[in-house]
Amino acid sequence: MDAELGAQLARLVRKRRTAALGTLRAGAPFVSMVPYALAPDGAGFIVHVSELSAHTKDMLADAHVGLMIAGSEDGDESPLALARVSVQGLAQRIASGAPERAGLKAAYLARFPDAEPMFGFADFALFLIRPESARFVAGFGQAHSLSGASMMRLLQQG
Amino acid sequence: MDAELGAQLARLVRKRRTAALGTLRAGAPFVSMVPYALAPDGAGFIVHVSELSAHTKDMLADAHVGLMIAGSEDGDESPLALARVSVQGLAQRIASGAPERAGLKAAYLARFPDAEPMFGFADFALFLIRPESARFVAGFGQAHSLSGASMMRLLQQG
Asked: Using CA atoms, how far apart are residues A86 and B53, in angstroms rounded to an integer?
């Protein structure tokens, strides 16, 4: 993928704030909405979710997830041509005592200061989603496949 | 669900034009973006997708899908509080000769006139996604479960 496309992907992921999260529920896909932040070291996407919610139970039962981030519908573009990236990866719960937790929490709160009180709730959980593969559709008919590692490098540079 | 909530759900689905589609790929969830329209008889959601794309192959291999429609990130609301609805259902390919095809195609093109040329491509397929269940999150902590049939009735009224 050339530098301009890489920069376009990085702009999309840095500008948008919510993703569609796909989890497995009794063998079928379930899609919910999650705010996300990027791990400062490029390890993946950070999400902070209630343990009472079904998507959290899904991720604890099966770590395979999909994540999709799309450009704004509210722009001038045809919805058929919106840029979007689809990621497949594994969701890992970050326990209270984990060494990486402080950095991930700080990155999440830098993006979502409103979420601070939720870190005081016992039933919220922090997850890191490590991408394995990604497909970036830059517009109509412009699809590019890349590895999770390649995508995270582009996002770090962007 | 009371009338005001039902109306809020109908406004969301009628106003937005793209959904996040969750399909099963080798047993893992994959999320992509699809423009959608509503079937005129309330049977479900209409999508029109390329047979070359992976989500189409996924739906032909396993009809279980998830669909999520979320409010605009670009408004004043916190992304943590965005309204969204998650649907689980079954995707059925509508063959060229099917009696319901003309009505579904017309409803799709009424929403997406740009898509007209794609109906001339041999490798595009029309699907009807019939909802089995839905979960409407009207805002932070305001989640409501409903059957697919109840949701479609609310959308017909809205």
From this structure: 13
